[in-house]
Amino acid sequence: MPVICKQIPEDYDAVLNLNRLVFGGNNEADLVDRLWRAGSVVVSLVAIENDEIVGHIFFSDLPIETDHGVIDAVSLAPLSVNPKCQRQGIGSALVLQGLEMCRDREKSIVVVLGHPGYYTRFGFSAELAKNLPGLSSSGGWMALELRKGALDNVSRQRLARMTQ
């Protein structure tokens, strides 16, 4: 199993290249680059095997404005694992460690756009995402409460800044 650690500046180009490889284009690499430059990084982890970055996960600030104040939420995007290393538990290890670090940073909610069959195993729910305007559960949006009840009685909220 690869070693999971915080991304360091020397990893930057390799992370962007991994995202280009995994997603077949520049969209996710450009997203990471924009969010990194904007100072929106909450957690960025890499999986390293034989001195090669084979996985990456990125969490960025996504404050949610409500009638009662701002909820300290984050967006998970992207999660990438080199195709030659997929189905070995690397993505799951990145998600679990990333979620724990978001909890440690006192974030309340994580939002993700992804495959329900994958993300529900970590507790993400399309039902919770229904509480957030503009995030259609039919579109693959899911949410996870890192702090129990973080989305209870949330009304007339809006995402202060979308990452995609």
Tell me the series of helices and strands, N- to C-terminal.
EHHEEEEEHEHHEE
| Apparent shape | globular
CATH superfamily label: Gcn5-related N-acetyltransferase (GNAT)
- What's the helical proportion of residues? 25-40%
What is the average of the pLDDT values? Answer: 88
Distance between the termini: 31 Å
Name the CATH class.
Alpha Beta
CATH architecture: 3-Layer(aba) Sandwich
Overall number of structural domains:
1
Number-wise, the strands total: 9
Major β-sheet annotation: 6 strands, mixed
CATH topology: Aminopeptidase
Regarding quaternary structure, what we see is single chain
Which class best fits the helix and strand makeup? alpha+beta
Number of helices: 5
Low-pLDDT parts are 156-164
Please provide a written account of the structure.
By secondary structure, the protein is α+β, with helices and mostly antiparallel strands. The protein has a single domain, classed as Gcn5-related N-acetyltransferase (GNAT) (Aminopeptidase). The chain has five helices and nine strands. The strands form two sheets. It has a six-stranded mixed beta sheet with strand order 1-2-3-6-7-8, with helices on both faces. Helix 1 packs antiparallel against helix 2. The longest helix has 15 residues. The radius of gyration is 15 Å and the shape is globular. The termini are far apart. 36% of the residues are buried. The C terminus is likely disordered.
